Amino acid sequence: MERDRLKLLLPFALATVSAVASKLILGDIAVVQLIGGWLIQVVATVLMIGWRRSWAPMVVLVAATAAIAFAPIGWQQAFAVGLTIWIPCMATYGTARLVSGVRSRIEIGIGAAAVVGWIVIMVSPAPVTLLGVLAAAAPPLSGACAALVVRLRAARRDRIAWLAKERELQADRRAAVEREQIAADLHDLVTHQMVRIVFQARNLADHAADQPTSAAADEIAGTATLALTQMRDFLRSTRSTEPEPTDDTGVSGAELHRQIASIVTDERAVGHPVSLGSTVATDDLRLSSTAAGCLIRGVHEGVVNAAKHAPESTVMISSSADGGQYLITIENSLPTGSPPALAVTGSGTGLRGLTRRAALIGGAIDVHRGEGSFRLRIRVPVLEPAPAVGVAGPDLR
C-alpha cells in the first residue's frame, strides 16, 4: 500500500517542483500559465499510471511533452533550459512500463514510435547534436534497463524456485525407486522361502507322530500364510522399479543348470513335486550375470506360483537355446477344485517385476493359461550362443 501511494505521489511532487522551479528561476511566467502547465503534467500522470496498456504511458507523455514544449502556455523557456524535471522522470517510467509489459508486435511498434517521437521533441529546442541526442535518449534507456533488470531478477527467482522444486522431485523419485526396489527384493527373496515354510509345516503336520505336533505345524502354516497375505497387501501399494542391468564375464550354461537343479532338489525336499526336464548344460553357452539372475528368479517365481495356486500339481522345468536366446519353461497343471489358501496371498508383483527385468536386458516373458495347464516362459539373450538343443539333465523327475 505504501509503495502504491509513493508511486502516485512522486509524479505529482515532480510536477510541483517543475512549476515552482520555473516560477522562481524564470520569474516572468504567469500564475495562470504556471497552473496550466502543472495541470497538464498532473492529468498526464493520472493517465500514464491508470492506463493499463503497455504503450499508453509513452503516448500520453509524447502528447504532454509536445504541449509543454510548443503550446503557448509560457512553459517553452522552462522546457528549453531543462527545468521540467517531470518529463525525463516520466519518460523513464513510461519506457519501463513499455519494456516490461509489451506483448505483441503492434504494441512494440506503437511504443517504439512514441519513444522516437519523444526524443525528437526533446532535441528540438536546440541544434541537433550527437551529445544532445544521447542526453535525450538517456531516460528511455535507463527505463528500459531498469525493466530488463526487474525481468531478469524475476526470471532468476523463477529459475531458483524451479530448481528447488526439481531437486525435491528428484529426491522423491529416488526415494520411490528405493522403496519400490525394496518391495521387489522383499518379494523375490522372501516369498519363495515363506512358501517353503508352509509346505514344510504341512508336510510335518501330515507325518506328525502325535496330535499336538500336528496342530503346531498347522499353526505355523497358517501364520506363514497370513504373513504372505499381509506382504501381498503391502506390495500392492508399491510398484517395482528395476535397476539398470550390468554385465560381466557371465555365467555358463552348466553353472545355470546346476543352480536350477539345486532349486529342484530343495523344492522336492519339502514335498513340492518339481521335475527337471531337458536343459542346456554346456560350458560353451554363456549368459550375463543379469540374465542368469533373471532366469533363476523366474524359476523361483514359477515354482512359488505353482505352489500357491496348484500345490498338488507337478512342476516341470525345461530349457533350450536357439538363435542367441536362452529359454526356460516352467509348466504345471491347473487346479481342479477350490482355490487353496495360499492362492489369495499372490499380488502379481513377482511376474510384473520379472517382466521388467527381462525387458531391461532385451528378453521377454510369456504367460499362457489354458488347456488345463499354466506355462511361464522366460527368454533372455546369451553372450555366446550354443547349438539349438535341449540336453537331458539329471534324473530329477
TrEMBL record:
Signal transduction histidine kinase subgroup 3 dimerisation and phosphoacceptor domain segment(s): 178-241
Enzyme class: transferase
Documented EC number(s): 2.7.13.3
Transmembrane segments: 29-48, 55-73, 79-99, 106-124, 130-150
Gene3D superfamilies assigned: 1.20.5.1930, Histidine kinase-like ATPase, C-terminal domain
Protein name: histidine kinase
Keywords: ATP-binding, Kinase, Membrane, Nucleotide-binding, Phosphoprotein, Transferase, Transmembrane, Transmembrane helix, Two-component regulatory system
GO cellular component, one term: membrane
A GO MF label: protein dimerization activity
Catalytic activity: ATP + protein L-histidine = ADP + protein N-phospho-L-histidine
